[in-house]
Amino acid sequence: MKNNLVFIGMPGVGKSTVGVVVAKQLGMHFIDTDLLIQEQEKRLLREIIVDEGEEGFLKIENQVNRNVNVENAVISPGGSVVYCDEAMKHFREIGTIVYLKASYQVIKKRIQNPKKRGVLLKEGQSFRDLYNERIRLFEKYADITVCEDGCRIEETIENVLSAVESMRNASE
Ligand SMILES: Nc1ncnc2c1ncn2[C@@H]1O[C@H](COP(=O)(O)OP(=O)(O)O)[C@@H](O)[C@H]1O
Ligand SMILES: O=C(O)C1=C[C@@H](OP(=O)(O)O)[C@@H](O)[C@H](O)C1
Ligand SMILES: [Mg+2]
């Protein structure tokens, strides 16, 4: 059944922190699939990235996310999941994709050091280039887009909840 919510968006946009509160407010389960990756691999994300490289990490990320089998859950994957075709196909089948959107300036302020934070940057790619590359994918997959520029986290959560409510009312 297609009754899950799946958050996508840049690292630092709030998929994990907003996701858990939204799940609580809506009486849904919550899964941060980065934690599933760490549990399966018995390594931290940053260790997997160092050991396996970007391609290796994406393979694991795709495999873990495409196998998520839940109902009535908020799912918060890592920001790079939009490169994982099978995982995204699966998420489209089991849920509504919610894109948490923020300007480059807002994200850059939160992520001071992308490499240290474990962001999957290709060799020679700037964080700005990565942002531009990813927004196209976020826009392609989004069923709902919630923009958080100028919002406090509480307002982001409220805006997500009303967008989800409107969508549910419209499909009744
Ligand atoms: N308006 C906002 N919306 C969402 N998160 C916000 C906002 N303002 C500040 N934050 C902060 O940004 C951080 C987002 O981190 P996190 O949830 O780990 O993001 P992600 O899982 O998308 O990488 C949190 O520390 C959160 O408190
Ligand atoms: O966007 C990325 O390249 C990544 C984001 C991280 O998750 P968050 O988006 O939850 O920070 C984590 O999956 C990994 O470090 C790679
Ligand atoms: Mg997260």
From TrEMBL:
<dbReference type="GO" id="GO:0005524">
    <property type="term" value="F:ATP binding"/>
</dbReference>
<dbReference type="InterPro" id="IPR031322">
    <property type="entry name" value="Shikimate/glucono_kinase"/>
</dbReference>
<feature type="binding site">
    <location>
        <position position="134"/>
    </location>
    <ligand>
        <name>substrate</name>
    </ligand>
</feature>
<dbReference type="GO" id="GO:0008652">
    <property type="term" value="P:amino acid biosynthetic process"/>
</dbReference>
<dbReference type="Pfam" id="PF01202">
    <property type="entry name" value="SKI"/>
</dbReference>
<keyword id="KW-0418">Kinase</keyword>
<keyword id="KW-0479">Metal-binding</keyword>
<feature type="binding site">
    <location>
        <position position="34"/>
    </location>
    <ligand>
        <name>substrate</name>
    </ligand>
</feature>
<feature type="binding site">
    <location>
        <position position="117"/>
    </location>
    <ligand>
        <name>ATP</name>
    </ligand>
</feature>
<comment type="subunit">
    <text>Monomer.</text>
</comment>
<comment type="pathway">
    <text>Metabolic intermediate biosynthesis; chorismate biosynthesis; chorismate from D-erythrose 4-phosphate and phosphoenolpyruvate: step 5/7.</text>
</comment>
<keyword id="KW-0460">Magnesium</keyword>
<dbReference type="GO" id="GO:0004765">
    <property type="term" value="F:shikimate kinase activity"/>
</dbReference>
<feature type="binding site">
    <location>
        <position position="16"/>
    </location>
    <ligand>
        <name>Mg(2+)</name>
    </ligand>
</feature>
<dbReference type="GO" id="GO:0009423">
    <property type="term" value="P:chorismate biosynthetic process"/>
</dbReference>
<keyword id="KW-0067">ATP-binding</keyword>
<feature type="binding site">
    <location>
        <begin position="12"/>
        <end position="17"/>
    </location>
    <ligand>
        <name>ATP</name>
    </ligand>
</feature>
<feature type="binding site">
    <location>
        <position position="79"/>
    </location>
    <ligand>
        <name>substrate</name>
    </ligand>
</feature>
<keyword id="KW-0057">Aromatic amino acid biosynthesis</keyword>
<dbReference type="GO" id="GO:0000287">
    <property type="term" value="F:magnesium ion binding"/>
</dbReference>
<comment type="similarity">
    <text>Belongs to the shikimate kinase family.</text>
</comment>
<dbReference type="GO" id="GO:0009073">
    <property type="term" value="P:aromatic amino acid family biosynthetic process"/>
</dbReference>
<dbReference type="InterPro" id="IPR000623">
    <property type="entry name" value="Shikimate_kinase/TSH1"/>
</dbReference>
<dbReference type="InterPro" id="IPR027417">
    <property type="entry name" value="P-loop_NTPase"/>
</dbReference>
<keyword id="KW-0808">Transferase</keyword>
<keyword id="KW-0963">Cytoplasm</keyword>
<comment type="function">
    <text>Catalyzes the specific phosphorylation of the 3-hydroxyl group of shikimic acid using ATP as a cosubstrate.</text>
</comment>
<keyword id="KW-0547">Nucleotide-binding</keyword>
<keyword id="KW-0028">Amino-acid biosynthesis</keyword>
<protein>
    <recommendedName>
        <fullName>Shikimate kinase</fullName>
        <ecNumber>2.7.1.71</ecNumber>
    </recommendedName>
</protein>
<dbReference type="GO" id="GO:0005829">
    <property type="term" value="C:cytosol"/>
</dbReference>
